[in-house]
Each structure stands twice: as C-alpha cells, then as structure tokens.
Known about the structure:
CATH superfamily: Beta Polymerase, domain 2
Mean pLDDT: 93
Number of domains: 1
Largest sheet: 4 strands, mixed
Number of strands: 4
Structural class: alpha+beta
Strand content: 15-25%
CATH class: Alpha Beta
Low-confidence stretches: none
Amino acid sequence: MRLSETQTEAIRQIARQLAGEEARVRVFGSRLDDSLRGGDLDLLLELSAPVDNPALLAARVSARVSRLMLGRKVDVVVSAPNLMRLPIHEVAFREGRLL
C-alpha cells in the first residue's frame, strides 16, 4: 500500500474527528498496488450509525485528507446503515484494506 504509517494514522484520526470514534476507513483502488505511481486516493468510510448528510461528510473528509496528501485527489465513499449499497461499495469491501 502506498501510504506511510504517518499518513495512515492521520487518515484514521481525520475519520474519527469528522465521523465519530466508531468510524473505520478502508483504502481501495490503485493505492494498494505498490508497483504503480501517482493516482488518486480512494477511501471507504464505514459507519455503524446512520448519517444525516453523507455528501457533506464525504466532502469534508476528502478535503482534510487531500490537504494531508499535499493536494492529491481523494475520493470518499460512505457506507452507513441508512444508505443504499452500490457496486462501488462491494468493490471497496472486497478489495479494500482496513487502515
């Protein structure tokens, strides 16, 4: 996985600060392939409680992590009990790596 331990811990902290202590984060997509370079960062934010405004939450997490990653593009997908589960969620759960 192409994230340092410092970046990994910072991403976990951002998720907890913005989504609550129970929030979990998975990385999926090209960042899992150590042979590649560059590319965006794809994150799945897993929540055990319903979320009122998932788009705003995803945008906030994306912005904070992007700043951490020196402006790199960050895509955030949110999974919560009150949200529809889409094919991207299946990919993220199947292929993603928990931080």
